[in-house]
Amino acid sequence: MAAAPALAHRIARSGVLPLCRRLPAWGRAIRQPPSLPLAPCRAFSNNKIQVEMNESSGVATMKFKSPPVNSLSLDFLTEFCISLEKLENDRACRGIIITSAIPKIFSSGLDITEMCGKSTEHYAEFWRAVQEIWLRLYSSNMVTLAVINGSSPAGGCLIALSCDYRIMAENPKYTIGLNEAQLGIVAPFWFKDTFVNVVGQRVAERSLQLGSLYPAPEALKFGIVDELVPEEKLQEKAAAVMAQWLALPDHARQITKSMMRKTVLDRLVAHREEDIKNFISFVSKESIQKSLRMYMEMLKKKKS
Amino acid sequence: MAAAPALAHRIARSGVLPLCRRLPAWGRAIRQPPSLPLAPCRAFSNNKIQVEMNESSGVATMKFKSPPVNSLSLDFLTEFCISLEKLENDRACRGIIITSAIPKIFSSGLDITEMCGKSTEHYAEFWRAVQEIWLRLYSSNMVTLAVINGSSPAGGCLIALSCDYRIMAENPKYTIGLNEAQLGIVAPFWFKDTFVNVVGQRVAERSLQLGSLYPAPEALKFGIVDELVPEEKLQEKAAAVMAQWLALPDHARQITKSMMRKTVLDRLVAHREEDIKNFISFVSKESIQKSLRMYMEMLKKKKS
Amino acid sequence: MAAAPALAHRIARSGVLPLCRRLPAWGRAIRQPPSLPLAPCRAFSNNKIQVEMNESSGVATMKFKSPPVNSLSLDFLTEFCISLEKLENDRACRGIIITSAIPKIFSSGLDITEMCGKSTEHYAEFWRAVQEIWLRLYSSNMVTLAVINGSSPAGGCLIALSCDYRIMAENPKYTIGLNEAQLGIVAPFWFKDTFVNVVGQRVAERSLQLGSLYPAPEALKFGIVDELVPEEKLQEKAAAVMAQWLALPDHARQITKSMMRKTVLDRLVAHREEDIKNFISFVSKESIQKSLRMYMEMLKKKKS
C-alpha cells in the first residue's frame, strides 16, 4: 500500500488531462508497453474497492467495500484513482458500473478524519486526490453508470453526479445530496458546477444553501438521479442500461461527452492550485476544526 | 424624507458590492460606530414600507404598503434600499420575509410616471435605484423569502425572483411574470439573467418574448414560484420555511449563495453605467414616451 | 437554378449577421431598392420548398416538399436560405410557419450523399450552407414556428430547435432527436448549444451521447417540443399560436430574442471557419467515409 499514494501523487501531478486520447502515463508505459498486447484484466481487489471485469461485455463493476460507510479517505481515493486508471487504459473495458458492497450506504463522502488535526501537507495531498478522482471520473472515456444502492451524501453524491447516468434503489430511506452546508462547509465550485449541470441553477442554488439530502423519490423528481428501481432489480437494470449505452460507437460518444463537460473540467484544471490553497486555508481555521471535531464526536456517540 | 434620496444616492454611488462581508458604508459608520453595540431594531415604518423585526427569531418582515398597487417609484425604491441596508447591517437579523400589505397585489412593478416626461438626470437616478435594489436583494447575506400574496408583474416579479425562495398564494386570479414585452419594453439583461437562473433558458426565452403573465398554478408549473399555499396559510408557511433556512449556519450558506449568483451580479456591476445609458436612450425615444403615455391614460380610465 | 448556389454563397460569405437590423445585402439592393415600395410576395415555389404568404395575417408558411424525405441537400439548403432571406426582407412578413408537405416526415436531416466521396471544396460549401441556415433561422427577426408533422432526426431536429416554438403531431410513430452519435458522427458544438438552450444540460448530455430519437410523447416530456396536437388540428393550432406571438409589438420581442440567443450565435460566428475545417477533416476520414457508405447502402436496401 505504501507505494500507492506516491503513484497517485505522480498521476495527480501530471496536471491537465487530455480528454479524448490520454498520453500514456509513465506508470502505464512501464506496465503495458505499447508493442505488447494488452493483458486482459479479470478481477482485482485491493483493500477498499473490488473490481470485476466482464470480458465478454467489456463492462467492469467497481464495488466500494470500505466499512463501515465507504468514506472517501486518502487511501480509498488512491485506490479508486488507480483502479480507474487501470480500466481507462484497458482497451477491452468500455464501461464501468460503480456501486457499493456495503448495505444501505453508497458512500458517506469525504473522510472527515483526513481534514481534522492534520498537517498542511496532508490537507494538500488529500484535496488533490479528491480533485483527481473527480477529474478522472467526470472526463472518463468509459461509460460510467452509478448504481446507488444506499445513501449517498456529500462526496458520495459527487461521485454519482460525475457519472453518465444514475440509477437509485427505490427506497425512501436512502438519501442523496450535497449536504455540506449542514456541516458549515461550502461545497467547492466544481461540486457546484457538476450539480448545476445535472439539476439546473434553481434547484442547485436552493439545495446547496439548505444542504438538502433528498429521499430517493424526491431525488428522482428533482433530476438528481435518472431512475428508481427496486433494490433487487438494480443489477439487472444496470446491465440493461449499460448495454444500451454500449450499443453506440465509442468514438462519437466520447467526443460528445468531452464537448459537453469541457467548460466545467477546464475550470478546475485552471484553478486547481488555488482551489487547494482555499481548501487548506478553510480547513485550517480553528472554527472549522472545532465544528469538525464536534461532528466526529457526534458520529462516535451515534455508533456506540 | 428629503435626505433619503441623497443617502440612497450615496449608497448607490459606492459601486461594487462585496458580497460576503460588506465594508461599513460611510452612512452606516456615522449611525453605528463599530465600537458601540448595535442597537436592536424593532419596528420602523416610513411612508411606503413597513418593517417588523422579530428579535427572538431574527426574522424581519417587510410589508409593501404604497397604495394603490405598490408601484416601484423612486421614493419607494429609496425606502426599500434604506430598509434593506439597515437590516443587512443588523447582526440580529438573519432573514427577511418580503410581502404586501395591499390586498390582491404584491407589486405592480416600476412606476411608469418616473419614466414619462422627466429629465435625463431623473431617468438616470431612477434607473440606478432600480439596479441598486436588485444588487442588494440578489446578493443579500440574509435569507430572503418572497411571500407573494397578490399579482406581481414586471419589476414586482423581479423582486420575487431575486429572493432565495418564493411562496405564492394559491389563487389563479393572481398572476406573475416579466411582461415588459407587452408594453413594447425590453427587460434588461440582468432581469433576463435572473429569470434564466430560476426557470432555465427555454421557458425564459418564450416568456420574455411573449411577456407572459402566469396565473399562480402555471407559475408553479414553470418554476417561477416554488410553492403555492392557500392565502390564509401564507404567514404560517412563511415562518416554517424561514425556520428551515435559518436552521443552517449562516456563513456556509452565505458563501454558497454568493458563489451561485456571482456571475450574474458581476455582469451588472461591470456594465452598470452602460446599462443606465441604454435605459435613458431607450426611454427618451418619442415612440416609447408615446406608448407609455397611452398606457398611463388607459390605467387612468380603468380606475375611473 | 444555376445561379442559386452562387447567391447563397454570396450571402454566406457576408459573415457576421447583425441580429436586429440587417444591412441590405447586395442581392436585395438589386431586387428591392429602398426608394421603391416593397413588392408584397404572395406565393413562390421552387423545386424543394413551397412558400405561401398570407398577407392579411403577415404569416408565411414554408412547406418542405423534397421527396422522399426532405433531406437537407446543398440545393435544398440554398433554396431554404433564399426563401428565408426574401421573407426576412419583406416588411409585411412578421412570422413563418415551417412544416412539411411530405407525409410522415418533417425532415430527415443532412443529405448524406453531400458528405460522401465529394471534394474538399464541396464539403466546405455544403457545411457553410448548413451553418448559414442555422444562423439565419436562429437569429430571425420573424416569429418562427415549427409544425412538426412527421419524424425529424438530426438536422431536421436542429431546424425545429432553432424556431421560437415547436408543435408536434401527437403520433408516437413520429420521432425527433439529434441522433448523430448513432451514425458515429459528433453533433457540432452549435447543434449542442441550441439543444442545451432548449432542454438543459442533463437531458442534452444524455441524449447526444445516446443519439436518442424520442417518440412525440417523450419529446414533449423532455421539452424538445412545446406541445402535442392531433395531426388534423395542427394547422388550426399553428394559426392560433402564431396569432398569440404576433399580438405583441415586434420590436421589443426581436431585441429580447436577440439578447437571449446572442451568446450562442456569436460562438459560431467567431469559430465559423474553424468549424468548417473540422467538418472537412472529420468527413474526409476513411473510417467515416466507410461508415457513411455502409449507412447509404442500408438505406438503399431498405427502400427496395
Describe the structure.
- Three copies of one chain form a homotrimer.
- Chain A has a seven-stranded mixed sheet with strand order 1-2-3-5-8-10-13, with helices on both faces. A four-stranded mixed sheet of chain A has the order 6-9-11-12. A two-stranded parallel sheet of chain A has the order 4-7.
- The first copy, chain A, has about 300 residues and is an alpha/beta fold.
- Chain A has helices spanning about 5-15, 25-30, 75-90, 120-140, 155-160, 190-200, 200-210, 215-220, 235-245, 250-270, 270-285, 285-304, and strands at about 45, 50-55, 60-65, 70, 95-100, 105, 110, 145-150, 150-155, 165-170, 175, 215, 225-230.
- Chains A and B meet through helix 7 of A and helix 6 and helix 10 of B.
Protein topology:
The structure is a homotrimer of 304-residue chains.
Chain A: H1 3-13, H2 26-31, E1 43-45, E2 49-54, E3 59-64, E4 71-72, H3 74-89, E5 95-100, E6 104-105, E7 109-110, H4 120-138, E8 143-148, E9 150-153, H5 154-161, E10 165-169, E11 175-177, H6 189-199, H7 201-210, E12 214-215, H8 216-221, E13 227-229, H9 234-246, H10 250-270, H11 272-283, H12 286-303
Parallel strand pairs in A: 3-5, 4-7, 5-8, 6-9, 8-10, 9-11, 10-13
Antiparallel strand pairs in A: 1-2, 2-3, 11-12
Helix pairs in contact in A: 1-3, 1-4, 3-4, 4-11, 6-7, 6-10
Q: What key phrases describe this protein's structure?
A:
four-stranded mixed beta sheet, 304 residues, homotrimer, 12 helices, 13 strands, alpha/beta, 16% strand, seven-stranded mixed beta sheet, disordered N terminus
